[in-house]
Amino acid sequence: MMENIEVAARSFTFTALADGPENGPLLILLHGLQRNCWEWHHQITPMVRLGFRVIAPDTRQSVTVA
Question: What sign results for the dihedral spanned by CA atoms 66, 11, 40, 32?
Answer without folding.
Answer: positive
